[in-house]
Amino acid sequence: MPKKINAWNLLWISFTSMIGSGWLFGSLYSAHFAGPAAILAWPLAAICLMFVALAYAEVATMFPEKAILARLPLYTHGRLTSVIMGGLAWISLATIPVIETQGLIQYANNYWPDLVVRHGFHYSSTFAGYLFALTLLLSFVLLNYFGIRLFARINSGFTIWKLLIPVITIISLFATNYQSINFHQYGGFMPYGWHGVMAAMSSGGVLFSLLGFRQVVVMASETEQPEKYIPVVMVTSLILTGLLYTVLQWAFIGSMRAQDLLHGWANLSFPGDAGPFAALALISGLLWLSLLLYADAFISPYSTGLVYSTTAAYMLASISSMGDAPKSFALKNKYETPYISLTINFLLAAAMFFLLHGWQAMSSFLVACIMIGYAVGPISLICLRKQLPLHRRPFRLYCSGLIAFAGFYICSAGVYWAGLTSIVKLFVLVIIGLALYLFHYFISKKSRYELDVKNALWLLCYLAGLSIFSYYGNYGGIKIIPAYWDLAYLFIFVLAIFNLAVYSRKSAIYTETIISSFRDAELIPLKI
């Protein structure tokens, strides 16, 4: 099939994935956790994620396949690791349209009341909001049904708008209501210490807003010259988007009124903060900007939900192609879209919208889910260096061992910072999903593959260890581990797991055989 996406469209896809509801809410919730120091969270998160992105850049150019996120753990560690990681990746992809829809609904509540109800400083949807959400989720299915060409055209138009509106908002807030005193009064620049900055990264929406670079990995098979453009697009999109979010956070903090901060940043609240930037513009007397932001609060989350709806469908189809889901999930229409997977994802999204409540809680859960899924990328980079040393690498990462470990540690810290509540929900989901798969494996007898339990022990130890750290840690746990020492202990634990994971890799013969089998099935010659 001919390539359809050039480098420019690929950059648009990455931008669209990272400029969704995160920019509409991240500044508010990050300020809750870190105060003015939230402006440090955005560039720090962007820099950290570059280590993860660079690891994926090498493996994505080695295997420019839509299914690479599902297949990568299968290539390196076998069936059980692939099932767990692939399942987490699919659930997170299918759930992101849910949080984007929630963001859209919260802003809409300011002009269409009774869509959400307030609980403390957070909001959850009413029954009317849920019905509206289902309508939006269904529209993602219908638009994506018509395939990648329509998706790319719509996406490019949305991205131009999505880049323009935050820039206009920044300029307007700086010009009309900026107060530098907010950065050193009301508790100082860092009222909650580095603990607050780290909490803002995971629970305030910072990491969630910047994790969209994986769309570049998934779309590698649709990209012209992936070996040339994928690393550049990943790094460029992280730098530019991180810079945009940092300046936006700066403008938000400087625009707060004294009466909104009397009880501290943790209790920051103002009229209409279900849609914070639109309400802030109205408070500042910028009615035109408020109306523009309400329009953007539909376009930005909607276009991001559209992107992830496509990616989740391809992810589920790839899981099906590996024998871990019914074969019908991989069926495609004349537009090369896996339409049954789109339908399944809609049903999952509808259920997750009912189970998860509020934008901030959704973002914390998704960060924990996504970061665990991302952790396999750095590990796979090192394993593939040992398993396939002679394989063609269009992009070869220098200092790969150091960068890969840094990426793995960053993923682990992101999960830990997401908080105990999010991790408990995530691991309950893992246990349920694993139980269903084992039922499929042992009772239904539909799978002919070995489970590769021995090669997955590192992952089981990793998940158990993160649970223990979260329970005894300082982010929703019982705070037995001293603050900041927890990161040192986590470093030692992650180092041990990283080495165990590399040691537990499958043999080179297995990896070569499984890759060849997929290449042969797709009629793509193996390049070695």
Query: Can you give the mean pLDDT?
Result: 84
Structural class: mainly alpha
What composes the largest sheet? 2 strands, antiparallel
Widest sheet: strand ordering? 1-2
Structural features, described:
By secondary structure, the chain is mainly α. Helices cover 70% and strands 2% of the residues. It is built from 21 helices and 2 strands. It has helices at 7-18, 21-34, 38-62, 68-77, 79-108, 127-144, 148-176, 193-203, 206-210, 214-218, 226-254, 276-283, 287-321, 339-355, 359-374, 376-387, 400-417, 420-442, 453-472, 485-503, 508-521, and strands spanning 116-119, 122-125. It has a two-stranded antiparallel ribbon with strand order 1-2. Helix 5 (79-108) packs antiparallel against helix 13 (287-321). The chain is globular.
Summarize the SSE layout with pairings:
Blueprint: H1 7-18, H2 21-34, H3 38-62, H4 68-77, H5 79-108, E1 116-119, E2 122-125, H6 127-144, H7 148-176, H8 193-203, H9 206-210, H10 214-218, H11 226-254, H12 276-283, H13 287-321, H14 339-355, H15 359-374, H16 376-387, H17 400-417, H18 420-442, H19 453-472, H20 485-503, H21 508-521
Antiparallel strand pairs: 1-2
Helix pairs in contact: 1-7, 1-11, 1-13, 2-5, 2-8, 2-11, 3-8, 3-11, 3-16, 3-17, 4-5, 4-13, 4-16, 5-6, 5-13, 5-14, 5-15, 5-18, 6-13, 6-14, 7-11, 7-13, 12-13, 13-14, 15-17, 15-18, 16-17, 16-20, 17-19, 17-20, 18-19, 19-20
